[in-house]
Amino acid sequence: MIKEKATELGLALSNSEEFKRVQQAKAAMDSDPHVQGLMEQYTKKQEQMVNMLENQDNDGMTVSAIAKEIEDIQSELMADPVFIEMMESQNQFANVMNEVNKVISAYINLGEEEESRSSGCSGDCSGCSGCMH
């Protein structure tokens, strides 16, 4: 029964507007040559930085220059509407997942103290505001 309910939940999540938005944003990002180019540059610069730091074969100026390039790429990505939509859609779906996990945790008494503190639950269900305690 638990696996069936998990399957139902998985299907419901995959059919949610939030998940569909993530999928659409990912497709848009994957097909955007500008964003893809920035992502490749970002990855290469990060790898270059890691190699320099691991080998300790660097000078402060080179490391600083690469760090500045990484920062510039990040800034350009954070200003790109396609990338912004991807980040926002992922955050929205993560919020949905967090809410689902809170509900599940409340029913199996995980995080009961945290839920009680945030909802004002006294442990007495009379007058309950719906914390699932």
Overview of the structural elements:
With 133 residues, this protein is mainly alpha-helical. It has a domain at 2-89: YheA/YmcA-like (YheA-like fold). Helix content is 79%, strand content 0%. It has helices spanning 2-14, 17-30, 33-55, 60-79, 81-107, 112-119. Helix 2 (17-30) runs antiparallel to helix 5 (81-107) and helix 3 packs antiparallel against helix 4 (60-79).
Write down the CATH topology of the domain at 2-89.
YheA-like fold
Overall shape: elongated
Order of helices and strands: HHHHHH
Oligomer: single chain
Structural class given helices, strands, pairing? Answer: mainly alpha
Major sheet details: none
The average pLDDT is: 86
How far apart the termini lie comes to 22 Å
Give the name of the CATH superfamily of the domain at 2-89. Answer: YheA/YmcA-like
Give the CATH architecture of the domain at 2-89.
Up-down Bundle
Strand segment count: 0
Q: Please indicate the percent range of residues in DSSP E strands (runs of 2 or more).
A: under 5%
Report the C-alpha radius of gyration, rounded. Answer: 22 Å
How many helices? The count is 6
Summarize the amount of helix as a percent range: over 70%
Q: Which ranges are low-confidence, i.e. pLDDT below 50, for 5 or more consecutive residues?
A: none
CATH class type of the domain at 2-89: Mainly Alpha
Short overview:
The protein has about 130 residues and is mainly alpha-helical. The chain is about 80% helix and about 0% strand.
What are the salient characteristics of this protein?
single chain; 133 residues; YheA-like fold; 79% helix; elongated
